[in-house]
Design goal:
7-stranded parallel β-sheet; alpha/beta; SDR_fam; 256 residues; binds nicotinamide-adenine-dinucleotide; Sc_DH/Rdtase_CS; SDR family oxidoreductase; oxidoreductase; NAD(P)-bd_dom_sf
């Protein structure tokens, strides 16, 4: 049987970028996958190439009723939930001088409270799983002190702390909780970050150059970390943050 054979995974923000790559890889490794996304474009074909046995559910992680209904839809379809990938997230640029209160509320509601909401709804089902795992999508911004990312960094710092606290709370229930800290990943997110300038290639090169490897991370490379942490080979791993960041966190060098 394949590595995740018979297990059921839900991936928030699975209609795009990292979440889509994670959904595809979890499916390729044998899991039944439910993609949960606020995007109206959620289609089974988007992640499974039309393969049978998967599910797409409209879900806004800032809306508790929507989250509860989405988890019920997953369990209604598959009868269980083993893996929750809390990947949905939004960005914010600027210093503390730039973001008003309502922007703080909006970003924290998605990036931090969204994880709590999803996990709260999923926990009763995860407790019944013999192989329960939660993987939260954090960021190098949680630890790197990036400029012009005050609100976003604070939100991801909270994701890191929340991951460790959840790992402690649920370890005796057999639920592992970890997070992945990507560097800058080549997703639609990055395309949106780049200003509508006439030199997007230069902007892109600058983002790539922040990472010692000198290139952007691929969504599939982050998905591989998600699949590892979600699967049985990580059975002794909980409370960790796994950097997939081209060496940005651990190395003190930058490419010339
Ligand atoms: P993306 O914009 O390509 O995909 C994000 C997905 O989340 C979209 O499909 C969007 O519809 C969904 N989403 C947004 N708000 C939602 C909500 N309220 N409820 C449900 N779904 C919602 O972005 P991405 O680059 O794939 O980022 C995914 C995650 O990875 C985010 O948590 C982000 O913070 C994190 N991350 C991204 C990068 C990067 O460089 N791309 C780096 C570090 C961390």
């Amino acid at each position: 049987m394949s590595e995740l054979g018979g297990l059921v995974a839900a991936v928030t923000g699975g209609a795009s970028g990292i979440g889509l790559a994670a959904a595809r890889l979890l499916a390729a490794r044998g899991a039944y996958v439910a993609v949960l996304d606020v995007s109206k474009d959620v289609e089974l074909d988007a992640f499974a190439g039309g393969a049978a046995g998967h599910l797409a559910v409209g879900c806004d992680v800032t809306d508790d009723a929507s989250v509860v209904a989405a988890v019920a839809a997953v369990v209604g379809r598959f009868g269980r939930l083993d893996i929750l990938v809390n990947n949905a997230g939004i960005g914010a640029l600027g210093t503390v001088a730039d973001n008003p209160d309502d922007e703080w509320s909006r970003v924290l509601d998605v990036n931090v409270v969204g994880i709590a909401r999803m996990s709260r709804a999923a926990l009763p089902h995860l407790r019944r799983s013999p192989a329960a795992a939660i993987v939260n999508m954090c960021s190098i911004a949680a630890t790197a002190g990036l400029p012009q990312r005050a609100l976003y960094s604070a939100s991801k710092g909270a994701v890191l702390s929340l991951t460790r606290a959840m790992a402690a709370d649920h370890v005796r229930e057999g639920i592992r909780v970890n997070c992945v800290n990507p560097g800058t990943v080549d997703t639609p997110w990055v395309a949106r970050l780049l200003p509508a300038a006439d030199v997007p290639a230069a902007e892109r090169a600058a983002l790539a150059a922040r990472q010692p490897t000198g290139r952007l991370v691929c969504p599939e490379e982050v998905a591989a970390a998600v699949a590892y942490l979600a699967g049985p080979l990580a059975g002794a791993v909980t409370g960790v943050d796994l950097a997939v960041d081209g060496g940005m966190n651990a190395l003190r060098i930058r490419p010339v």
